[in-house]
Design a protein that fits this description.
239 residues, eight-stranded parallel beta barrel, globular, TIM Barrel, single chain, alpha/beta
């Protein structure tokens, strides 16, 4: 198994801060802790409704912290403009619904997607690595590849929610087969959504896995053990 990168999503540090609209907990401080504890990237989802991460979080972390920034965003012109201005190292295009509690699954990649293709081209042209959040389905993976994406982030929510060994094994197999296709297309293989300390190891062992993006479980655990320990524990698990 090679070195698997860990992207730590700090959205919910901002969720806590937004509860009081105060300065703390500060995302810049969180980003620094992530990097000093073994995290390879800081992940932030700038949602259109700005429910947690704000534009200023993205700008400040980019300016004040040395390290890789991975921006999750909807494939809309407003976000494209922000990405081209802030220049994260990489971007993941994710679907976004107005009333969802969290992302509901992979991007719908079938049908006419000229707008999506154009955004991928523009981001790539600016030297930003582009991944697409996709369900472990061959059609979706091929479509993202044809649009010029560099990487696929497989949505692991079906696996994470699978109850019982049999169902979990079935979902894991789907992820592995999707992973083979991603690698065959010579793309980077990422995965994330609902991964925690109990279910992450089998996903980390998927052949060709390059990066896991994990947020909620790490931030939840950090409430009890501190962010440094929570990040370090996850990093050790996935190696």
């Amino acid at each position: 198994m090679g070195h698997i990168k860990l992207g730590v999503n700090i959205d919910h540090v901002a969720t806590l801060r937004e509860a009081r609209k105060e300065k703390n907990p500060d995302t810049v401080e969180a980003a620094r802790v992530v990097y000093t504890s073994g995290g390879d990237m800081v992940v932030m989802h700038l949602r259109q409704d700005r429910r947690h991460i704000q534009d200023s979080d993205l700008e400040r972390v980019r300016k004040e912290v040395k390290g890789m920034i991975h921006l999750e965003m909807a494939a809309v012109p407003e976000m494209e403009k922000i990405a081209l201005k802030v220049r994260p190292d990489s971007v993941c295009l994710v679907p976004e619904g107005p009333n969802e509690v969290t992302t509901q699954g992979g991007m719908q990649l079938t049908g006419k997607q000229a707008g999506l293709e154009k955004i991928i081209r523009n981001l790539s042209g600016a030297g930003i690595e582009v991944s697409v959040f996709a369900d472990p389905e061959p059609g979706a993976i091929r479509a993202a590849h044809n649009m010029g994406a560099d990487a696929i982030e497989l949505c692991t929510s079906a696996y994470s929610q699978a109850w019982g060994k049999k169902l979990q094994a079935k979902e894991l197999e789907r992820l592995q087969l999707a992973g083979f296709l991603v690698k065959e297309l010579e793309m980077e293989l990422h995965a994330g959504h609902g991964l925690d300390y109990y279910n992450v190891v089998p996903v980390a062992r998927i052949e060709g896995m390059d990066c896991l993006n994990i947020g909620y479980s790490i931030i939840s655990r950090s409430m009890f053990v501190g962010l440094k320990t929570a990040v370090g524990e996850m990093k050790r698990l996935i190696q």
